[in-house]
């Protein structure tokens, strides 16, 4: 926790953890203000978790969430009112401290504190407030004063898709000026979290510093994006700064909407409620699996689209396999509650999966969408949809529940001119170029092509986007086309995987000969691929522009 002082009564920082609250209390903090909306990051505790810790420490706590780069005057006024009403020192936090500092700067504009003092204190704390200086001073500012730099390619997002695309671009043309925009300090290998939740991987093996992964020759702009301005070929960053581009690649990932399920944020990580979709919760999944010796275990899947659509049932299979090996499965009642109507979207893989469903005695409950959780009472509520279009709410008790939250595009994408009606970046599904802006592309979870949202899909998409960006810039011959490839290694037991590989329309697209790995049947070799080969392929090939089994076919055009 890197605490920065803005004045005698206010400190700010990036995201805090529940265990940090006692430290703040010992420093004399009497009031906490959270300026970060829940669900922004995969390693982010929810406000309810911080609130519980603050109440236990006798600290007042307030939730004033702000969308990054979009601080309003009303929010600043409310922030100022909270500061004035506080009974002692205040600590505010967001992702980096930038939003909290911006709120403070805007709320101090009419306090008699000079603009120079506000800017100086913010700078000494490590925050550049030049972008909001005009608002603080109530005077105009020119576009030129807000600009940072200009690049051939600006990539929004430093996840698997963004870094892989940057690496593929630089491998093809090292003369390109490329920037990755992302505020995160840590990059996660999210496909590994299923194994963390099964006690196979340790959490630390799935995390590396962002700085260690940015490709050589690529600039890292460590900031959050507030908005897109395609008319001016610019990205608006937090603090209202502009970043110019010739071409833009949007790889902003996906938002986990934990708040969409009533009561969930109040009980995550305790009361038997867990999820492998968050870095800090996957170890709790394994803890629950080890400790649960009898009772009812529920595994849920929300409406599509979600990232890694097989992950909800992977958690069930690996948990059941452990209970079976420990002789506990006969004392367990296992239920899979899927908001959709099928176990898996590609029918060829369903027979093998059903054999494991039957082996583990798991009850399949389709058209059941989780809407509420009461952790202390160990109850969950689902909306069950019938074939006649009618629906009803059903209640289930549990001893353990693995929850997958509904998912959507990040807020700044959903509110932008790049989004379709559902909020995803609107692209041509083959070229991955935006349907309305000729110098914008998108890949990964954030775009609307009808493919599975998996890291394997991003690995195939990155070279396609890299080639097509260069083609637009006149530096490559021919266009590349994406065939919708996605892969889902369905871990049906410890040591065996059903390796689902498919493209648009559910067409099977196996990477290996059938005699080596028959993807429609469980395979030990596929497990070896998942456990031992895919992590180094991810870290050392995909994120470094090595396109093993991913180089696209180029057509004239």
Automatic annotation (TrEMBL):
Residues 151-264 form the FAD/NAD(P)-binding domain. Keywords: FAD, Flavoprotein, Oxidoreductase, Quinone, Transit peptide. Its cofactor is FAD. SUPFAM superfamilies: (Phosphotyrosine protein) phosphatases II, FAD/NAD(P)-binding domain. The keyword Flavoprotein applies. It holds the Pfam family BLH_phosphatase. GO terms for biological process: sulfide oxidation, using sulfide:quinone oxidoreductase. InterPro entries: BLH_phosphatase-like, FAD/NAD-bd_sf, FAD/NAD-binding_dom, Prot-tyrosine_phosphatase-like, Sulphide_quinone_reductase. GO terms for molecular function: FAD binding; hydrolase activity; quinone binding; sulfide:quinone oxidoreductase activity. Residues 2-108 form the Beta-lactamase hydrolase-like protein phosphatase-like domain. The keyword Flavoprotein applies. This is TIGR01244 family phosphatase. It comes from Parahaliea mediterranea.
